[in-house]
Amino acid sequence: MTDNSIYKNRSRYDLIYDILKEASMLTGARKTALMYAARLSQVQSERLRCYLLDTGLLVVDKNKFYTLTEKGRKVKEILEELRELVKEK
């Protein structure tokens, strides 16, 4: 039996989690790293990054590193818990 889970579309929450996880690194992350972490095109990544900035989950510093806000950390933790609860066995 083959594992078809790699072929499923990712939800918006999966994409948000991937970006928040990358931005949670000690020094933050540049926009290219966020794009690669979520495996998105440049346009898709820009839209989602703007959404995360507008909702207060991410901030960008003067050196163009994206880091999590306290709200972003909470959302990341909640998404981690949710992923664990619905993980396929």
**Beginning-to-end CA distance, first to last residue:** 15 Å
CATH architecture: Orthogonal Bundle
As for the number of domains, it is: 1
Shape descriptor: globular
Helices, by number, come to: 4
The CATH class, by name, is Mainly Alpha
Order of SSEs, N→C? HHHEEH
Which consecutive residue ranges, at least 5 long each, have pLDDT under 50?
A: 1-5
In terms of DSSP E residues, the strand content is: 5-15%
Q: Can you tell me the CATH superfamily?
A: Winged helix-like DNA-binding domain superfamily/Winged helix DNA-binding domain
| pLDDT averaged residue by residue | 89
What structural category do the secondary elements indicate?
Answer: mainly alpha
Count of β-strands: 2
Assign a percent range to the helix content. Answer: 55-70%
The biggest beta sheet reads:
2 strands, antiparallel
Looking at the structure, the CATH topology is Arc Repressor Mutant, subunit A
Rg computed from alpha carbons, rounded to a whole number of angstroms: 14 Å
Order of strands in the sheet with the most strands? 1-2
Short account of what is shown:
The chain is mostly helical and 89 residues long.
Would you kindly provide a written description of the structure presented here, covering whatever features stand out?
The chain has one domain (9-84): Arc Repressor Mutant, subunit A (Orthogonal Bundle), CATH 1.10.10. The model is unreliable at 1-5 (pLDDT under 50). Helices cover 56% and strands 7% of the residues. The protein is built from four helices and two strands. A two-stranded antiparallel sheet has the order 1-2.
